[in-house]
Structure formats: structure tokens, C-alpha cells
Amino acid sequence: MSSNAYDNGLWTRRYHPAPDSPVRLVCLPHAGGSASFYFPVSRSLSPAVDVLAVQYPGRQDRRHEPLVPDIQTLAQLVADELSGWLDRPLAFFGHSMGASVAFEVARILRRDRGIELAHLFVSGRRAPSRFRDERVHQESDEGLIAEMRKLAGTAGSILGDEEMLRMIMPAIRNDYRAAETYRYEPGPPLECPVTSFVGDADPKVTLDEARAWAEHTTGDFEFEAFSGGHFYLAAHQAAILDRIRGELGVGVAAV
């Protein structure tokens, strides 16, 4: 990995190492999210799957680091970090903004290293080719908080804690800006299987926008809608993890 302001070994969290697993799942967080969002995923999939959760700069133990202002730069930095984790097949799971990052990292790994993913799981995000003119990042802090409450992605206790809000607001605004200013640059489709998950009442993505991920791979494509909004995952975690195990061919984890 090249030396730069972000090169500090803090990019990945391997909460439950699974050295004998046949596949590694890299999980990428949503806007304002952190690696710890995927701790339950790591716990549930280990030891069948070796889970890596990505920690973006500007939050939690990286809160004093410079924020990454755009998806393309963030994807390149993540791809650089993953150069040390290529000893087994890679699959990606990205929710919301994380889905866009996962897609761009997949493109970089194939372009620069000839690596095709074992599987790409995208969640709560429209396909890259589907554009929306969104400008939530230009709202006041109150507007951003209102958006977070609408999506129910941040615990109410945090939304009511002024000190905590001041701490996380720069990262949230940065991530919204990165996600909303992301523009897909046409190129060859992926060849790996892609599975798109979405909540059927998600205000950020329609079912058709989520199905359009099929346009971005020549591999198998699966689509599944769950009841719920943008963070439908909380109510359907077991079903989603079962789908991931099935698609990765690792069966049901031991209890």
C-alpha cells in the first residue's frame, strides 16, 4: 500500500478471524456508519466465512483523521488496503453508500489486479446507472438530523445527545456528499454473481432502481425485497445471512 495520510493500518476490523474459511467477506458501511455495524454479521458467519469490516476515516477510533470526500478516492484506498487480503476468494457486502463503494472497489480490483469477486451483495442502494439529484448534504445540521430520523439508521439516544451529534456530524455530512455526488462512469460490467437486497418501503431506492443492478454484471443476478425501509436489515438479519451463506456455498454456521 502506498504511503499517504490514510495509511495507518486501521482500515479493517477482523472481529472473528476464520483462518480456515474458504472465502472472505468484506463489509462496507453506509453513510455515517462504521465497521462495528457489521460486528453481528462477523459473529454470525464465523467460522464459515472470514469477515472483514471496513472502517472509513473520520469516525470512532479514526475520528481525528481526514475525511475522504468522494466515492472514487475512497474505493481506491479500500482497494489498496485489500492488497494484503487476497489469499482467498473475496466477496463484498455493501449497504447504501457502502454498495457504491463496493462496486467501485470491485471494478478497481479487476482492472488493476485481474481479480473478479466471488460475489457482490448490494443492499439499500440504487444501481450505479440510476441517477437521483439528491442534495441532503447541503442541508443544515437540523435537516441532516431529520433525514437520519426518517431513515431510522441512527439510534435515538445518539440523535438526542448534542455532544455525540457534534462529533459525528462532519462524517455524516461528508458521506452524504460523497454518496450524492457519486457519478457512475460507464465501463465493462462485472462478471461475478450479484445479489441486490432492498426494503420495499425504502425512500432512498425503488424496487426498479434496485433491480437495475442486473445491468452491471454478466454473471448471475438475484434480487430480493424485504419488508421495511432503508434499514430493513435489522428485522431480517437471519434471512439475509442465510442467503449470503447459500450464495457463498458455506452452508449454515455451527451454533
UniProtKB/TrEMBL annotation:
Pfam family, one: Thioesterase
Family per similarity comment: Belongs to the thioesterase family.
Gene3D superfamilies: alpha/beta hydrolase (3.40.50.1820)
GO biological process: lipid biosynthetic process
Residue span, Thioesterase domain: 24-245
Protein name, as recorded: Thioesterase
InterPro entries recorded: AB_hydrolase_fold (IPR029058), TEII (IPR012223), Thioesterase (IPR001031)
